[in-house]
Design the sequence.
């Protein structure tokens, strides 16, 4: 069941968030942490940040 929402969420993710992080001079996870709680970030950026943080957690679980 989890794979369905993940596939849909990542279907349109073509590196836009990573490019935003690179432009800001930060790692993807550092930028995600900052933007997820930002008051000035757009809704789209906040959602991308939360997705990046969730994906990192899922990747971390696979290693255990």
Sequence:
């Amino acid at each position: 069941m989890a794979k369905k929402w993940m596939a849909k969420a990542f279907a349109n993710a073509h590196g836009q968030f990573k490019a935003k992080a690179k432009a800001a001079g930060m790692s993807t996870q550092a930028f995600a942490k900052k933007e997820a709680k930002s008051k000035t970030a757009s809704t789209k950026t906040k959602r991308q940040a939360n997705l990046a943080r969730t994906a990192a957690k899922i990747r971390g679980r696979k290693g255990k």
Observations:
- Residues 31-64 form one domain.
- Residues 43-62 form the longest helix (20 residues).
- The mean pLDDT is 86.
- Residues 7 and 13 are 10 Å apart (CA to CA).
